[in-house]
Amino acid sequence: MKRQANRPINVRLRRLLVMLPWLQERGTVSTHEMAAHFGVTVDELVADLTLASLCGVSQDPRDLIDLYVDGDEIHFGLPKYFDRPLRLTAPEAFSLVVSAAAARSLPGSDPDGALSSAIDKIARVIGAENVSGFDVELEAPDGIDELRDAARRRAVIEMEYWSPETAITSARTVSLFEVFVEGAHWYVRGFDLGRDAERTFRFDRIESWTDSGRADSRPISPRRAWFEDADDVQDVSLLIDAGWLWVLDQYPLIESAPIDDGQMRVRLVVTSERWLERLMVRLGPHAAIESPQHLRGLGADAARRVLARYERT
Q1: How far apart are the C-alpha atoms of 148 and 187, rounded to whole Å?
Q2: Claim to verify: residue 15 and residue 127 sit in the same structural domain
Q3: Is residue 139 assigned to a domain?
Q4: 263 pLDDT higher than 70
Q5: What is the rounded CA–CA span in Å between residue 210 and residue 308?
């Protein structure tokens, strides 16, 4: 089996929530059929199923999920402890419903399958039919509480911020508005005094910050849509192999939709062609720019420049 790219474990686990009920209904299925159904490569599929085969209530092989790959066939069976009804506490049931509901949006999910049916039944029992209205609380990173406290005090901070567009760390003086979480990332919104404009900064790109001891009482504007105030914004459409969609998990997308041949069409906002170059080099042969037409060769051109530098050294 080929070595797999570093896919986030939370993405792999969510996908398994959809895969295992689908497998249970079939018992035996070919690797190629299942990989095509869930929009992943065979190697990625086998890696994820290997992870699932190590799951159980103990290290005793009799308590592990009965799952193995024989040639190009996958065989699946549930361990005997699933024959007994589970006794879930209310928090456990709620957590299960929210996690499983999120997994419904993954490629290959069957809205009428066993997983959806189980979610609906448990949700009705605990009175949580509309899980789409809940916010999932993420573990806060170190230092975020201090920054949130500074934002409540309307503090002006001095920070060192790394920009992915320029790959440069620069000093910023920011009047804080709010600290918030969206998707998998925390953000800091405020008024950049040096640039005389509102800016949103990703928390994990702030290398250091200090409280200036000053406060700012300027009015706080409502949070706007991503990149609404950015200059030279481009709407870029990518065709990307479904198994590589995880690369874009950390970026806000306009929309994504499956197309033929196991690919996804993804639209995203691009404010820097340099950033788009790095993204396309990272995706390699697994993605191509569909539009605008003048950017179609961007990734290949960047890859050639990188290779040329290695040849010179």
Answers
A1: 10
A2: yes
A3: no
A4: yes
A5: 42
What pLDDT score was predicted for residue 4?
42
- CA separation for the pair 292, 308 (Å, rounded): 26
Q: Higher pLDDT residue, 273 or 248? A: 273
Can you tell me which residue has the tokens 């928090």? 91
Q: What is the mean pLDDT of the chain?
A: 77
Distance between first and last Cα of the chain = 33
Residues 93-117, mean pLDDT to the nearest whole number:
64
C-alpha angle 23-29-31 in degrees, rounded to nearest 5: 105
Residue 197 counted as domain residue: yes
Radius of gyration for the alpha carbons in the chain, expressed in angstroms and rounded: 23
Checking if the pLDDT of 120 tops 70, the result is: yes
Q: What is the number of domains present in the chain?
A: 3
Tokens of 114: 């066993």
**103 part of a folded domain:** yes
- Calculate the CA dihedral of residues 81, 84, 89, 91 and round it to 10 degrees: 60
* 125 and 151, same domain (yes or no): no
Give the residue-averaged pLDDT of 245-254.
Answer: 70
**Is residue 271 a contact partner of residue 227, using CB atoms and an 8 Å limit?**
yes
**In the structure encoding, which two tokens stand for residue 89, read together?**
């506490």
Q: What does the pLDDT look like over 142-157, one tens digit per residue?
A: 888 899 999 999 999 9
Cβ-contact 255, 225 below 8 angstroms? no
In whole angstroms, what is the distance from residue 247 CA to residue 167 CA?
A: 19
Q: Do 204 and 246 touch, CB atoms closer than 8 A?
A: no
- Which residues have C-beta within 8 Å of that of residue 166, sequence separation ≥ 6? 274
Would the pLDDT of 245 be above 50?
yes
- Domain of residue 128, residue span: 9-133
Residue 185 lies in a domain: yes
pLDDT computed for residue 48 by the predictor: 82
Extended beta strands in 193-252, E state: 197-202, 206-215, 234-241
